[in-house]
Design brief:
This protein is mainly alpha-helical and 426 residues long. The chain contains 18 helices and 6 strands. Helices cover 51% and strands 6% of the residues. A hairpin with a 7-residue loop joins strand 2 and strand 3. Bound molecules: carboxymethyl coenzyme *A.
Length: 426
């Protein structure tokens, strides 16, 4: 196959190099196209545009394949906990046992936030959405760690990354507790990352847990719950150049503070077409209310004149089953009894899935269930309220954003993101 692509416009032919990655489609390097031809290319939504080179995450949407640093997601979920995944994404290699313990320890010690955050959270109304509070708090982190603006060495990058990964669960739990108007719970350095988050969500002041009448041992955080949430964090850890990651890279390209870039990513994630879908899936299942109503809503989703969409279905890249969804579907089945998953919602979800997977409308458009279709029922069983679902996505994804931020910053050829336009005004 030719190593160049030719674009013919009238009598002129322009030739551009074809770049070859290690996996995935080849790329036509058209960076000089405007200079050569005086024309722009037009690709709103970046459906055919590679915006960067990356070595972090690979997706094959046709096969339904996802890899972090070359490792298949299915293997990583089976063999590693979430903080090993963080280490892998940040360092491009899996940690040794010692490195894993060291990283775990560092995250535990960095989980605390400045006491000034109490004032910040108290300024929000209790009705505020946790995502609004979380993104504001992450922007506020840039005020507390302003020195991170000028990082140049590996140690500085590492400190900045571990700091934000460690603090996001704490800030998320405080945001949740603010919605209830209850006192915050400090991180417990004796607890692993994921267990600590559930602890900060659930515990009473003093680290006590709810005790049923007559119950000797209080309900604490169960190992099976930690494992389930750890898997959810792992599956959300990175997803190459999606909308929020592209936002993080765009903000990074202006030279803004890294935590300001992460905060922008959090806001981009919040939308229903992206990470906000997990909250909408459960809202939609509740709205459907009964299996007997599923047909009616499938019909609405297929109607081109109705804006209704099946939340948790479809994906820009996956034109096959989302591999993350496959893992969560299996996890749902495993946890059904043990965590007492909501059988009514599961029944509705199964019915939707069953119909959609053989309905011509969905089959023709390659609309399969995505990760958000399955995460909500599990999160609900962990006692996590619906308005915290997207914050859970944030906790998992922060490492991906920060890894992509670092990759961008370490690229000497990185340029400010500045798309062009097709002007149609006066
Ligand atoms: N329900 C019904 N129809 C749909 C759906 C859906 N969920 N998703 C796409 N379609 C139809 C759409 O109407 C269009 O039909 P037509 O060709 O007749 O106009 C066709 O499928 C292509 O859709 P599109 O909007 O052009 O596709 P996109 O790649 O721009 O959008 C998406 C991808 C994820 C935004 C979209 O599928 C969607 O809105 N899904 C529901 C929200 C959701 O679950 N989002 C979470 C994504 S996974 C988590 C993450 O990584 O963010």
């Amino acid at each position: 196959m030719s190593k160049t692509a030719k674009i013919q416009i009238g009598e002129e032919t322009y030739e551009y190099p074809i770049l070859e990655g290690t996996r995935g489609p080849k790329v036509v390097d058209i960076r000089s196209f405007y200079k050569d031809s005086g024309m722009f290319t037009f690709d709103p939504g970046f459906t055919s545009t590679a915006s960067c080179k990356s070595e972090i995450t690979f997706i094959n949407g046709e096969k339904g394949e996802l890899r972090y640093r070359g490792y298949k997601i299915e293997d990583l979920v089976k063999e590693h906990n979430y903080i090993d995944i963080c280490y892998l994404l940040l360092h491009a290699k899996l940690p040794t046992k010692e490195q894993s313990l060291e990283f775990d320890n560092e995250l535990r010690h960095r989980a605390f936030v400045d006491e000034g955050f109490k004032n910040l959270f108290n300024a929000f109304p209790r009705t505020a959405h946790p995502m609004a509070m979380l993104s504001s708090a992450v922007t506020a982190l840039s005020a507390f760690y302003f020195d991170h603006l000028n990082i140049t060495d590996d140690l500085g990058f590492e400190e900045m990354a571990t700091r934000i990964i460690a603090k996001i669960p704490t800030l998320s739990a405080i945001a949740y507790r603010r919605t209830l108007g209850i006192p915050l719970i400090y991180p417990d350095i004796d607890r692993y990352f994921t267990e600590n988050f559930l602890y900060m969500m659930r515990a009473y002041p003093g680290g006590k847990f709810h005790r049923e009448v007559g119950q000797i041992a209080p309900t604490t955080v169960k190992e099976i719950e930690v494992k389930a949430l750890d898997t959810i964090f792992t599956l959300h850890a990175d997803h190459e150049q999606n909308a929020s990651t592209t936002t993080v890279r765009t903000v990074a390209s202006t030279g803004a503070h890294p935590y300001a870039a992460i905060s922008a990513g959090i806001n981009a994630l919040w939308g229903r077409a992206h990470g906000g879908a997990n909250e909408s899936v459960i809202a939609q299942l509740e709205m459907i209310g009964d299996v007997k109503n599923v047909d009616k809503y499938i019909k609405k989703a297929k109607d081109p004149n109705d804006p209704f969409r099946l939340m948790g279905f479809g994906h820009r890249v996956y034109k096959n089953f989302d591999p993350r969804a496959k893992i969560l579907k299996k996890l749902q089945d495993q946890l059904k009894e043990e965590l007492k998953l909501d059988s009514r919602l599961l029944e509705i979800a199964h019915k939707i899935e069953e119909i959609a997977l053989r309905d011509e409308y969905f089959v023709k458009r390659n609309l399969y269930p995505n990760i958000d279709f399955y995460s909500g029922v599990i999160l609900s069983a962990l006692g996590i309220p619906r308005n915290m679902f997207t914050a859970i996505f944030v906790i998992g994804r922060t490492v991906g954003w920060i890894s992509q931020w670092m990759e961008f910053k370490k690229d000497p050829k990185a340029k400010i993101a500045r798309p062009r336009q097709l002007y149609l005004g006066d």
